Amino acid sequence: MARTTHELRKRRHARIRRRLSGTPDRPRVAVSRSNKHISAQIIDDVNGRTLAAASSVEAQLKGTSGGNIEGAKAVAGLLAQRAQDAKITKVVFDRGGVDYHGRVAAFADTLRAAGLEF
Predict the structure, then answer these.
(1) 37, 44, 71, 98: most buried by Cβ count inside 10 Å?
(2) ∠ CA 108-111-113 to the nearest 5 degrees?
(3) What is the pTM of this model?
(4) H or E element: which one contains 105?
(5) Domain 22-90+101-113 -> CATH class
(6) What is the largest CA-CA distance in the chain?
(7) Distance separating alpha carbons of residues 95 and 76, to the nearest angstrom
(8) Which strands sit side by side in the sheet containing 38-44, from one edge to the other?
(9) pLDDT tens-digit profile of 59-88?
(10) Which residues are CB-neighbours of 24 under 8 A, at least 6 positions away?
(11) Range 50-66 average pLDDT
């Protein structure tokens, strides 16, 4: 029986999440993407709290597509600014079961360039 792309991504993400967890010292950056949008949250898994979040559907990013690399960079820049405001400097990166390629890689590179360590 063939598995759908969505099912395979969910399995990869579960496999990644077994090893990866956000702590108060190093919260997790969870990236989610669809064909049109990209969003991310900085999560402290120990306390179950979202410390910062950004998405391509926000009013601040109106006119920016989340479906391309430039949009991913814009969302990452906004998330990095919010992380700095929350005094977050070190994180672990959770790619959400998708390939570290294209928009996800551009997102990570922008976060690193903005000063987040992972």
Answers:
(1) 71
(2) 110
(3) 0.92
(4) helix 103-113
(5) alpha beta
(6) 48
(7) 13
(8) 49-55, 38-44, 28-33, 92-94
(9) 999 888 989 999 999 999 999 999 999 999
(10) 44, 46, 47
(11) 93
